[in-house]
Structure formats: structure tokens, C-alpha cells
């Protein structure tokens, strides 16, 4: 069976179901969207904490990750050559806002970063151009942290995503991802910063917030009365996404970093900090992946026509 | 003017004539269904009945797909309320598919054919104007409607279960049927204002 006919057969099967899973975001080329959203979120978080802790390598990491996220987004699009047209509908579309945010962020970083890391650069970081770049990147960073959750909340066809908590949860992921990126960067540059202890403390606090928000979102989906949202939770906790959720999100993203943090597995050091960051980031990726893949479309049959 | 459709579930026999007529009219590739028919069973033995629910784009008054589209490729014609896609603007981000609560949008990602040997001459001619890697959906056969004909699914329904007309005109047949027979829309709680109504079975 060719890939096309397999996909066609899958669609025909899906169309027969009451609870049709969405497959466009997260499967096949759709995986690039998950990667793109993940990288861009981490990039914005890394930039934020890079600024807060005045840590240049963190800013560089943020810029590189954002560039990678942009490329992943382009790889996802059906018609990447038309990407620039995404500025047209900024009034209502969160994807447009995200695109503008990413453009601002990258352009601002190009203005702000080089004088910070290169000696002989035509302008200084504290020049007008440098400040302009700082402002553009900061504005872009805020948009990137905020917009992503709203992209999902605006998806009326997928009740599980259509939760008011989703944007807040994605903001928390961006912060957690940013801390993770900085921890990894510190190990790469073999430079344990005095801010590492503060970063770990913030990581614990943000992780606690993520857990609470996620629990609230699951509880809301289960008690909200929408059968498609309930089905999504079932897919995530006991269905086709369960392996990724328990193995990726819980084990890799939560249990392993906490065990490392407690010093039970290895003595605390730069390498362990990097491992905490890496596992935490991987866990966040799986969290986004499972949430997206667990999306179930609103059933079409009206209640009075359904036999169950 | 606002074009709309009424589908009489009492008359629909689930013959898939609308689905086939639509495919023939638009030459849609495999995996793209502007019109389709959902089937379900109702009741318990021995009083069991089959229910057919034909579905298509609802051409919503407040269409979530238009709001979600980053390029403006999804848009509404001002003069007749039909929701359409400008395929030259579509970037294939599929956000409209996630936003549509009626799941009646399809991504035409690769050139696909109905026969293993490739496109037949008829298929090639019918699909020549399609773009790949963009989202496709029903546009109420706007070209036919503008030339005074009803949409293909309406014209080909053997039981006359589909009626097409102006929802803004209180004297039109669609308005009368909705009023007299208690026409309902799918997911009215979402406030999208669909232009496709169903009459109870």
C-alpha cells in the first residue's frame, strides 16, 4: 500500500468515527509544527531569562532556537513559498500575530546580539540601533510566549484545546523551556553561573505551576460536559498517546529531572544541571506532542441523531 | 442576500448521490469531500432505523475558519454570504481545519488519483485547476449558482431532500421550511450561524 493510499484509507476510517482524531497537526509533516512550536517557545523563554540574568550565551541560544523554529514552521506549511502572506490577517488570526512576533524577534536579535558577542561590530549594544534591536526582540519575545496557546484555543473544532487555561499553560511551558535552555547552555560553555541556583529554584516553581495548570485543564476537560474533550483526555491518559504521555512527559520530563535534582542519581554539577534542562525540555516536547495529537474533532452528529 | 441550504432528513435516503454529484462537478481528488453522508443507526431491535446525515461546509455567518486564517485565503463573498477559499493565498497551515467545528475542510497534500495507473484523461482535465498542498472545501457551487443553476448536490438529489435558496428572503422556500418544519443547525451553541439547516427526520 502506498503512503497516499494508506493516508486515504485512514481518512475514510476516521470519517466514519463519531470521535475523529485530528491528524493534520502532529502526524507526517505536521510533526514539524510541533517541533516549531516547541523550539519557538523555548527560544522566547531562553531570551527572557538571558535578559533577566544578563547571560549572553542564553540570548544566542534563544536566537538559534527561534531560527530553527522558524525553519520548522516553514517545513510544515503546504506552501512555504507564500509564508510572507501570513502578515495579512493580523486583526483576527493568532498565527499571523505569531509570525509577526517571530519576525520581530529574529530581526531584533540580529540588531542586538552581534555587538554583544563580537568585538569589532559597526554599532554598540547600547547605541540607538542596539536599543531598537533590544526593543524589537523583547516585543517579539512577549508575542511568542503569549500567542501559541491562543492558536489552539481559537480552534473551535477541537474542544480539548478550546480551553481558557491553554494559553496560560503554554506561557508556563515557554518559561520552563527557557530555563532548560539556559541550564544546557551553561554546560555547553562549561561555565557554571552563580545564577544556576536561582534558575533551578525558578524551574521548580514553574514546574509546580505547569503541573497545577495541566491538572486543572484535564479536570476541566473531564467535567466540562464535552464528550470530544473527554475522549481527548482518554486518548492521552489511556489511549494511543498514553505511551508518549507517561514515558515522555511524566518519566523523562518530570521524574528524571526531579530525581537528578534530588541528587539521588548523580552528584549535583554542571553536567547534571544540563541533564535536568535537557530532560525537562524533552518532557515539554512530549507534552505538546501528546496534547496536539490527542485532539479530537467535535462530533458532527447532533445529539438527537446519535444512538448512544 | 445569503445563500443557504435546507436538508430534509425525512426525505434523505442516504444514496450518496450528493457526494458523487459533487465529486463529478468539482473533480475533487481522493480524500477530499466537499459533500459527504454520515450514517448511523437509531433505536433498539426490533425498532431500529437508519439515519443519514448529509454534511457539507456550513457557510457560517460568523465563520471561525475565516478568523483563524492568517492570510485571508478563507473569506466570505459579501454579496451572497458564501464562504470560499482563494487558493492562491492559502499557505497550507491548516488552522482553518482546526477552527471549523463541522470538520468539512480537507487538505489536498499530494496529487492523488483514483486509479493505480495514474490520472485518467477525464481526471486530469477535471483536476487541472486544483492546487496541491492547500485546503479545499465546498463553495455551494458558486459558479453554477451565479449562472442560475442550483448546486450540483441539490440538482442531483433524487428525493429532493436538498433545497437551496436565500435565507434573507422570508418568502423563500428555505425560510418557509425552516420556520414551518422546525429547521435546526449543527452545533448552534457555538454561535457560528450556519447557513445549512436540517429538517427533523
Tell me roughly what share of residues is in helical segments of chain A. 55-70%
Q: What is the CATH architecture descriptor of chain A?
A: Up-down Bundle
Number of helices of chain B: 7
Count of structural domains of chain B: 1
Give the name of the CATH architecture of chain B: 2-Layer Sandwich
Largest sheet of chain A: none
Give the helix level of chain B as a range of percent.
10-25%
**CATH homologous superfamily name of chain A?**
Formate dehydrogenase/DMSO reductase domain
- Largest sheet: spatial strand order of chain B: 8-1-9
Separate helix tally of chain A: 10
Provide the CATH top-level class of chain B: Alpha Beta
Oligomeric grouping of the chains: heterodimer
End-to-end Cα distance of chain A: 35 Å
Give the strand tally of chain B: 9
| β-sheet strand percentage of chain B | 15-25%
- Decide which structural class fits the backbone of chain B: alpha+beta
The name CATH uses for the topology of chain A is: Formate dehydrogenase/DMSO reductase fold
Rg of chain A, Cα atoms, Å: 21 Å
| Strands of chain A, total number | 0
Specify the CATH class of chain A. Mainly Alpha
Q: What ranges of chain A have pLDDT less than 50 throughout 5 or more consecutive residues?
A: none
How would you explain this protein's 3D organization?
The complex is a heterodimer of chains A (308) and B (201). Chain A has 308 residues and is mostly helical. Chain A has a single domain, classed as Formate dehydrogenase/DMSO reductase fold. Chain A has ten helices and no strands. In chain A, helix 3 packs antiparallel against helix 4, helix 3 (56-76) crosses helix 6 (166-188) and helix 9 runs antiparallel to helix 10 (270-293). The longest helix of chain A is centred in the last third of the chain and has 28 residues, at 196-223. By secondary structure, chain B is of the alpha+beta class. Chain B is globular. Chain B has helices at 17-26, 64-68, 95-99, 121-127, 142-146, 152-155, 173-181, and strands at 3-8, 35-44, 47-56, 74-76, 83-85, 106-108, 134-136, 162-166, 196-199. Chain B has a three-stranded mixed β-sheet. A two-stranded antiparallel sheet of chain B has the order 2-3. In chain B, strands 4-5 form a two-stranded antiparallel sheet. Classes of the chains: A mainly alpha (308), B alpha+beta (201). The interface between A and B is large, with 46 and 52 residues.
